[in-house]
Amino acid sequence: MVLITTLALWLLLAVALWIFTADSRNPTTHTLEIPDGTIELIATGENPLRIPSTWEFLADDTLVLENDDRVDHWLGNFWVPAHETREYSLQPDFGGSVLCSLHPSGAINLDVGLRDFDWKATVVPTLALGPFVGFLLAGVRRVMNALDEPVDERCSIEDLETNTTAKE
Q1: What order of strands is seen across the sheet that includes strand 84-89?
Q2: What is the pLDDT of residues 22-49, one digit of tens each?
Q3: Exposed e or buried b per residue across 144-162, where buried means at least 16 C-beta atoms within 10 angstroms of its C-beta
Q4: What pTM was computed for the model?
Q5: Domains of the chain, start order
């Protein structure tokens, strides 16, 4: 029962991941030009680069930061000195909430999704949840079977009433 449930859960997760990654596109280069004076506009609360609070990419996309500003800027672990250009290949490990000197809030969510179907992405959830769900279903099945067993017919309600009356 546990093995069957684990395999069924893996199949369900694999199909969901396959559907999720079905509309994948080729890797894209995203260039962010940081003009001179950007830091002053950000300090006043503006968002001159129009960076969203959640910025979405796919794995293997490239982020190019062209910094023409007077100061260094960073986006999570990505750092670009003043008047320089840096390129970064994006991977799902880089995602999450990151500090960002290019956004007025000082932080953004960097969402780097999977590009293609990856069988390895289904292994951890399957091994974590599969046996638990299998044992749970096995327990439910055992209880249901116990409820379906016929009652011992050697003892009826009339027998109980007779024994109770006889003792009085």
Answers
A1: 29-34, 62-67, 84-89
A2: 666 788 999 999 999 999 999 999 999 9
A3: eeeeeeeeeeeeeeeeeee
A4: 0.57
A5: 1-23+121-145 (no CATH), 25-113 (2.60.40)
